[in-house]
Amino acid sequence: MTRGYRIFQGFNAVILAVVVVATLYPFVNIIAQSFSDERYILSGQVNLIPKGFNLTTYQIVGSDPMFWINYRNTVVYTVVATLIAMVLTTCYAYVLSKRHLKGRTFLIWIAVFTMFFNGGLIPNYVLVTSLGLKNSIWAIALPNAISVFNLLVMKAFFESLPDELEEAASIDGLNTYGILWRIVLPLSKAVIATMVLFYAVSFWNSWFSAFLYMNETELFPVTVYLRNLIAGATGAEGAGAAVADVTQAAANIKSVTIVLTVLPILAIYPFVQRYFVSGVMLGAVKG
Amino acid sequence: MTTANTLEPETLEERPDSGRRTSRGGSWRRALRRDWQLYSLAILPLLFFLIFRYAPMLGNIIAFRKFEPGGNIFGEEWVGLRYVRMFLNDPTFWNVFTNTLVLGGLTLLFCFPLPIVLALLLNEVRNRKMKRFLQSVSYLPHFLSIVVVAGIVMQFLSLDGPVNQILQMAGGEPISFMQRPEWFRTIYVSSEIWQTVGWGTILYLAALTTIDEQLYEAAKIDGASRWRQIWHVTLPGIRPTAVTLLILNIGTFMAVGFEKVLLLYNPLTYPTGDVISTYVYRMGVQSSNMSYAAAIGLFEALIGLTLIISANVISKRTVGTSLW
């Protein structure tokens, strides 16, 4: 090991430490704020550790019925949209994975072309509005039902399964649906878990579809609730209606809402991270 | 002579053609009979693509047709290039066009190379547990909702937030960052770096593990230093990945983080923050000028398509890597 390389290693450690701190500091800061007393936040004394520890803000946010209605909406939207997305994606990916299928290339191009060119905001808005999907869960679930990237990941996985199993099953008298349901899907648990996570996280985090197509507060997901809360701060548009009476604790309430919104993601993250990584690899190598 | 000459190629052409057609039809019939269950699985997904992807593409026709709310989604009557001429003469359009190019350019400038640098640094970490920890931490921001990121950014930069506290400690005046147009680009690009760079390393780290160890051994025997090894072995090893990602980044260049801009900007920061997609949103959804907004949106999408196709052609010619 040369001296230059040792210097580099030290240098590298410093840079990576800075990266870690810069990535984590905002999280820790927000969490610390959410447990802190408003006075210390406003005087800028809260950094990594809560000051004047209290749960009052959690009680304020928790006592807003709209927050819970919107939180429940997020759960419902995520579950339903993920379910629809999984059914459509699995079916199409399975079809596309059959190399002998006539017209397969065309079917693939139908999907892939939409990665490079899409209709754009306005025609989509006009379409969803004229289909009468506004103010319903379908405005969120249907237009985003297939992510082409996820589709290609699944297709790559199905292609990697040995053909012999399916041939044997069809000799045993199973039809295509039976093969997919009883043979292929049980073998694909890992990729299915990955896809469910991909979709669920993206639906959980999504806000714009709901923001665009939902007019009633009771239909908002929690991300739109949070959006209205933070938009109130810039004075850009209307403030979050439900919490207008407690504006003196604004900074605190925002921190608490942020923490509660990301909590499920943070809770599952350590366990599911490797699925995401392997899913992206599979998509990148074969897609 | 002449009749024979003109007849002959026709008959020659027709025979194989018609033969092919019947055989093609026949093989389609056979494929349908054999695989109808497979095709039936494709019906719902195809309906999805047709209705929610291809119909909106055709829906762009309202850029050239008069559109009435609640009326035909493909418009009422042709108006030609009226809306195109309108936006070309709209000074706001040129402002948001410039903003889009600047913001897209800055994002590309920082968010394309930084993951490569970070991946190279991570690759030099010898302790495996440490490496895994660093990866977990750097991937984390990718999983946050854009709303959450915007919320964190605003809390951070608020008048009593950490950044202004540091400024005041250093003896400066607090700055209302979110209201200042001159700060918008910095804020946008920094938050983009924070959220995307860690996750962006995944593909490079994967590419790095596929590089043959023997290449490094050979380079060492040839007397190459660490730096020369990186330059001659590592970088060429990740070049295909880098080129592919560059093409994809160039393709999304015009659609710069629409949702994030929408969350971060406000009327005070329009001079630097307003981009094509947010202008389209305000014109169309908020002011109901659907045709006008669709014309601008179509313009943006066509530039995006042109960019990705040209980037692909250029990279195919120069480095031999391409998407298709």
TrEMBL record, chain A:
Pfam families: BPD_transp_1. GO terms for cellular component: plasma membrane. Residues 71-269 form the ABC transmembrane type-1 domain. SUPFAM superfamilies: MetI-like (SSF161098). It is found in: Cell membrane. PROSITE patterns: ABC_TM1 (PS50928). It is a multi-pass membrane protein. It comes from the Bacteria. Keywords: Cell membrane, Membrane, Transmembrane, Transmembrane helix, Transport. The chain crosses the membrane at residues 12-32, 75-94, 106-125, 137-158, 179-204, 224-244, 256-272. InterPro entries: MetI-like, MetI-like_sf. One of its GO terms (biological process) is transmembrane transport. PANTHER family: ABC TRANSPORTER PERMEASE PROTEIN MG189-RELATED-RELATED, POLYGALACTURONAN_RHAMNOGALACTURONAN TRANSPORT SYSTEM PERMEASE PROTEIN YTCP. Belongs to the binding-protein-dependent transport system permease family. This is Carbohydrate ABC transporter permease.
Automatic annotation (TrEMBL), chain B:
The keyword Protease does not apply. InterPro entries: ABC_transporter_permease, MetI-like, MetI-like_sf. It comes from Nonomuraea terrae. This is Sugar ABC transporter permease. Pfam families: BPD_transp_1 (PF00528). GO terms for cellular component: plasma membrane. Belongs to the binding-protein-dependent transport system permease family. Residues 97-311 form the ABC transmembrane type-1 domain. One of its GO terms (biological process) is transmembrane transport. Keywords: Cell membrane, Membrane, Transmembrane, Transmembrane helix, Transport. The lineage of its organism: Bacteria, Bacillati, Actinomycetota, Actinomycetes, Streptosporangiales. It is a multi-pass membrane protein. Residues 1-25 are annotated as: Disordered. It is found in: Cell membrane. The chain crosses the membrane at residues 36-55, 96-121, 133-157, 193-216, 237-258, 292-314.
